[in-house]
Write a structure and sequence with these properties.
Order of helices and strands: EEEEEEEE
Helix content: under 10%
Distance between the termini: 17 Å
Structural class: mainly beta
Number of helices: 0
Strand content: 35-45%
Largest sheet: 5 strands, antiparallel
Radius of gyration: 15 Å
Strand order of the largest sheet: 5-4-6-1-8
Shape: globular
Length: 136
């Protein structure tokens, strides 16, 4: 079981971990995981599509990382559920511009032990931090 967490910043000023003024950006999460026999190798198996249900929370105080939102054991009952691809800047439930977090748990097939994995983000627009099992 892997815990996968994506922290995304979408702000006017400043842009979280980015130090320049930016216009508001749209962001869509579309993620796939490929298991490969080695770095640079062609995919050894079909990708695992990670679109679908994700947990989502806005972070207006920019304290999610400080508060351990990237840790695998975090209880996220109060986080919203969204379906990816998702863009909170156009989702009427989240009239907000700023940092936000996406979170999902998924399993990797047992026969993938010892293989490299590659995450592919087809629609991450702008900047993101990725944690897997609490590791950046």
């Amino acid at each position: 079981m892997l815990n996968f967490l994506l922290s995304r910043t979408c702000r006017l000023l400043p842009l979280g971990n980015v130090f320049s003024a930016q216009r508001q950006r749209s962001w869509f999460a579309t993620v796939a995981l490929w298991l490969t026999a080695g770095f640079g190798a062609a995919p050894a198996a079909e990708p695992i599509d990670l679109d679908g249900a994700w947990r989502f929370a806005i972070d207006p105080a920019q304290r999610g990382e400080e508060n351990g939102w990237h840790q695998p054991g975090l209880v996220v009952r109060d986080w919203s559920e969204v379906q990816t691809p998702h863009c909170w800047t156009i989702d009427p439930r989240f009239p907000y511009v700023g940092s936000a977090w996406y979170r999902r748990t998924f399993s990797v097939p047992a026969d993938a032990a010892g293989q490299h994995a590659r995450l592919a983000f087809a629609r991450v627009f702008h900047r993101a931090k990725i944690w897997i099992n609490g590791q950046l």
